[in-house]
Design brief:
The chain is an alpha/beta fold. It is built from seven helices and five strands; from the N terminus they run βααβαβαααβαβ. Strand 2, helix 3 and strand 3 form a beta-alpha-beta unit.
Length: 188
């Protein structure tokens, strides 16, 4: 069983504005940088074997600040990216709910199968994130390993462990730059 420390990147301006970021490559804002530094300080004594990161700059910058404290280089894995939200990327949450009310209802009711127009389903997201974590656990069977990713990406792992389904995945999205300790066994 591999001990993982799952971390959602620090805050971005789009988080603050409540915009759907998805795979749009938005940097950390000043609050996000402070959160990433606080995270690095909080985990400075954790005996990390490795630090993995999404390739999106908000996650990679968070991981880099953590890695500096451990004399490690983040290992970039694009499978740890956030969900692709298609037409919703860059839109305010309130505008999505107003313009795409039926789509958003379907997305929340059946996240495994439903997607934003032109986007990815939560089921597809879970499949690629789970495959990345399986590879991490195979390489580091004990850990701890930090995995810096994105809110919904992390929530799919938590849903798999806690619920066995994605029914409540949106309730499991962690706060920015708050570590979530997660024990992972490679499925048989």
């Amino acid at each position: 069983m591999t001990e993982l420390i799952l971390v959602r990147h620090g805050q971005t301006e789009w988080n603050h504005q409540r915009r759907y970021q998805g795979q749009t490559d938005i940097p950390l804002d000043s609050t996000g940088m402070a959160q990433a530094r606080e995270l690095a300080e909080q985990l400075q004594n954790a005996p990390l074997e490795a630090i993995y990161s999404s390739d999106l700059q908000r996650a990679h910058r968070t991981a880099s600040l953590l890695a500096e404290r451990h004399s490690l280089e983040p290992i970039v894995d694009s499978r740890l990216r956030e969900i692709f939200h298609g037409e919703w990327e860059g839109m305010l949450q309130s505008d999505i709910h107003a313009r795409y009310s039926e789509h958003i209802a379907s997305f929340h009711k059946d996240p495994f199968n439903a997607a934003a127009p032109g986007g990815e389903t939560v089921g597809q997201l879970q499949f690629r994130v789970l495959n990345a974590v399986i590879d991490i656990a195979a390489r580091f069977p004990v850990g701890p390993v930090a995995v810096v990713s994105h809110g919904l990406a992390i929530a799919t792992l938590l849903a798999q462990q806690k619920e066995g389904s994605l029914d409540r995945v949106f309730e499991l999205i962690p706060e920015n730059a708050v570590p979530v300790y997660f024990h992972f066994s490679i499925p048989e």
